[in-house]
Amino acid sequence: MDRTDATLDVPVDAVTIGETIHRALRIGSGRPDFEELGALEGDLRGHIALLLPEAREAAARLWHGSIEAHRLTARLDGIERQTAQGLGHGPLSAHVQVHQLARDCQYLLARHTAAARP
Q1: What is the pTM of this model?
Q2: Which of 107, 76, 101 is nearest to 1 (CA)?
């Protein structure tokens, strides 16, 4: 996922991202409609697009031969692939996709929050 000019100066709103993650993880109870899942997926993909470049930069600063660098790069590659999956063709696949994106976003937000601490 390339960092676009639009995301270069956008501040990370951890509260809003956290609320989106919470809504996405809570959606498991009941029968969410496909439109609601689609909206959540779009929000999560946007948050991931904002957070992923920072995580990629952190990975690039690691020693490239290290296990830590390999694990982080593999995780970030997986997150990027997941964002390209789409909702699928039914409510179950849409629910699974939104839940996975929420977990991926949660991981990236935790990394961002930890890196922002003095």
Answers
A1: 0.88
A2: 76
